[in-house]
Amino acid sequence: DKVLAELIEPYELRVATLLEFLQDVQPSLRYDIARLADPYGPSVTDADLQCLVVSEETRSGGEAVNRKRLENGLPALALYEILLMKDPDHSQNEEEKISSSSLRQRLLGTLLQPPRQDPALPSHPYVIGLTGGTGSGKTSIASRLGRLGAFVIDADKLGHAVYSPGGPAYGRVVATFGAEILNQDGTINRRVLGAKVFGNQERLKSLTDIVWPEMAQMVKEQIREAAAQGNCTWPSLLPLAALCF
To answer: Following DSSP, what letter does each residue of 123-189 receive, concatenated?
Structure first.
């Protein structure tokens, strides 16, 4: 439940960094690093321990350790409380103290490691899909990347174009769902079509089996167009926003 837990460094790396720090502080210091698999660790079973260092935030945890030690027939530990260091550079959305959670938030938008070189992937164009629910920011991200030179493929628009009059899926959609889905001008009435398929998994699958392969083909054609222009391309094969550098 840590903030941005996926950015927490592996345990082995954290131990190596801690060892380096301890040796810098005091090479002759004796220490034992224990991996915690529960909230207590060895603090409630090690009879040799005498003191537990806590902060103003974790004092209640230290008190819980002492209750557990007493239950286990061990003497209570002396609790040595340290002050939390304030972070003078924290932003409005970050904690006032120096916090690893805040530090991880600052990593967002930065390159954490060089891009992985995969010989199986073509170097050009570079394709990325944007997916997400309504209001998740797909359009905003697509617009921003488009301003940076991305070749934008909007799969929503392709989804409409694919069954517009003259589109590759138009005839099959009309043949499958009937002429009653048509407006007077021959265009497909999306509201009428939606009423036929949404809530009916079999009909919805019939529609997607017609539309999605044609959309995928249109996406591939636009990727080839982007490559011919010397751009990279980013599509989504679902009816969601898509774009490309």
So the answer is: SSS-EEE----TTSSHHHHHHHHHHTT-EE--HHHHHHHTTSTTSTTHHHHHHHH-GGGB-TTS-B-
Residues 132 and 240 in one domain: yes
Query: Structural domain of residue 54, as residue ranges?
Result: 5-98
Looking at the fold, whether 172 and 240 belong to one and the same domain comes out as yes
| Per-residue tokens: 144 | 């921003």
- Do residues 20 and 41 make contact, with C-beta atoms less than 8 angstroms apart? no
φ and ψ of 64, to 5 deg: -65, -35
Contacts of 151 (CB under 8 A, 6+ apart): 125, 222, 225, 226, 229, 231, 232, 233, 234, 243, 244, 245
Q: pLDDT, tens digit, for every residue of 31-62?
A: 889 998 898 999 999 999 999 999 999 999 99
Partners of 78 in the beta sheet? Answer: 51
CATH number for the domain harbouring residue 54: 3.40.50.620
Q: What is the identity of the amino acid at 174? A: V
- Residues 167 and 180: their CA atoms lie apart, in Å, by 18
The span from the CA of 69 to the CA of 40, in Å, is: 10
Segment 172-190 mean pLDDT: 92
